[in-house]
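Final report, closing paragraph on structural work. Over the funding period we assembled a curated collection of sequence-structure pairs, and we close with a single example.
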Amino acid sequence: QVQLVESGGGSVQAGGSLRLSCAASEYILDRYCMGWFRQAPGKEREGVAAIDKNRNTNYEPSLKGRFTISKDHAKKILVLQMTSLKPDDTAVYYCAAEDCAYSSYVRVPLFGYRGRGTQVTVSS
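Its predicted structure, as stored:
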């Protein structure tokens, strides 16, 4: 059974940073496509970033340069480092995984496994 548990959300002022973590098994980190998506109130789910088993990454274009996705195998976590946060980044952020070789960030909201989410609130 695939279990994904997010942490690290919170409230921050515009311009600040947050680091989200997603605990996963070593098997999932090694073999699955993983990623982050978010959902703001009243809006559709939006893919944020994806990383494949070879650590190739891709991002929603407007977020590239501010958000970085990575894997920490020693800690068995998927990480989303977010900088220069804006009020528009306010959303629930979800970690997701899929048994695949490669995936675009666009497909991350459709992945078969996801965590319960962590709230990120950015105030102006």
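The mean pLDDT is 96. The two ends are 40 Å apart (CA to CA). We thank the funder for supporting this effort.
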